[in-house]
Inverse folding.
């Protein structure tokens, strides 16, 4: 018998803005990442988000905001996703496989872009959960390291397994031949990584807010306390996290900026709601 390729599962090819899934990886029972083809016309700035989704009942697509986790130079798009058991989109999206189609509205927007910050010495990425996604894009963009001497990725999750996607990415970037060639052998020391857990024992623990206010992260990494002359930050987590981190950053003398008015830090919600 000649093997016959599976029929595409979705009917998205009948709709505009369909893209094809090229890879899927499951990290935990609540987290997965996937890659899709990139529309030739799509230009975006690393850190921005787009609307993606699947066709719903009656043909009306179910669309949700998703940060693009891949850098602007990549010829595919990567996403890092939660699986909400009864979520209208992710209860289905979590089952996609290579060859399937998703809908992607090619209108990127967002505040977590390099242009929204003033120049500085050090750039902090502060994320919980899937809030890592925009920074997975920015960490892979050489422009980030052209603009800042040091980049510090702080990522906090409840459990250790939820850190794996970020840990693997940072590990591979530190030894990325292209980045090392561009920035020299010392490149690995320019990308600092500070993962913590809060509910499962791990090598490093604690909330980002606590590790900043206590000064523990500065002591552990050998950095001066955050200050408006040198430090810039981007924040992406739940609403409660964003509100609390904003207050901490303001306590260090940093002010919030926007695309139209660059300052010392910018904030974006990783999702709407209380979290799961
Ligand atoms: P929804 O009905 O959308 O959500 C149900 C509930 O699940 C929410 O009320 C909330 O309590 C919880 N929830 C939703 N998303 C998350 C999450 N990411 N982490 C923890 N709890 C959550 N989601 C991603 O997985 N990856 C991304 O890169 C991403 N980027 C986003 C960027 C922006 C600007 C915004 C506003 C949201 C983003 N989201 C992201 C959330 C995403 O839009 C959807 O909410 C998510 O895919 C779940 O969709 P759903 O239809 O299954 O459930
Ligand atoms: P904690 O376990 O102490 O609540 P969630 O899954 O609830 O969105 O949380 C993801 C991670 O973010 C958890 O490690 C959680 O710590 C942390 N977190 C939640 N809310 C805040 C907040 N307001 N400030 C700092 N960290 C937070």
């Amino acid at each position: 018998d000649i093997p016959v390729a599976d029929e595409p599962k979705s009917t998205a090819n009948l709709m505009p803005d369909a893209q094809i899934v090229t890879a899927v990886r499951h990290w935990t029972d609540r987290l997965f990442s996937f890659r899709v083809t990139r529309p030739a016309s799509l230009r975006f700035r690393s850190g921005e988000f787009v609307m993606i989704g699947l066709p719903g009942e009656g043909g009306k697509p179910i669309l949700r905001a998703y940060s693009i986790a891949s850098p602007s130079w990549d010829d595919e798009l990567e996403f890092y996703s939660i699986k909400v058991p009864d979520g209208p989109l992710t209860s289905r999206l979590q089952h996609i496989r290579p060859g399937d189609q998703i809908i992607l509205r090619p209108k990127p927007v967002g505040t977590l872009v390099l242009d929204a910050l003033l120049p500085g010495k050090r750039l902090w990425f502060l994320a919980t959960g899937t809030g890592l996604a925009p920074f997975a894009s920015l960490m892979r963009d050489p422009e980030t390291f052209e603009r800042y001497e040091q980049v510090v990725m702080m990522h906090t999750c409840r459990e250790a397994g939820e850190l794996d996607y970020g840990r693997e990415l940072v590990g591979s970037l530190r030894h990325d031949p292209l980045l090392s060639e561009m920035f020299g052998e010392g490149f690995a020391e320019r990308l600092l990584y500070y993962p913590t857990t809060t509910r499962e024992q791990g090598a490093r623990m604690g909330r980002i807010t606590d590790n900043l206010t206590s000064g523990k992260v500065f002591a552990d990494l050998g950095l001066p306390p955050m200050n408006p002359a040198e430090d810039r930050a981007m924040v992406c987590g739940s609403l409660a996290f964003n509100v609390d981190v904003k207050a901490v950053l303001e306590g260090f003398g940093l002010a919030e900026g926007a695309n139209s008015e660059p300052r010392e830090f910018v904030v974006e919600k990783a999702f709407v709601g209380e979290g799961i």
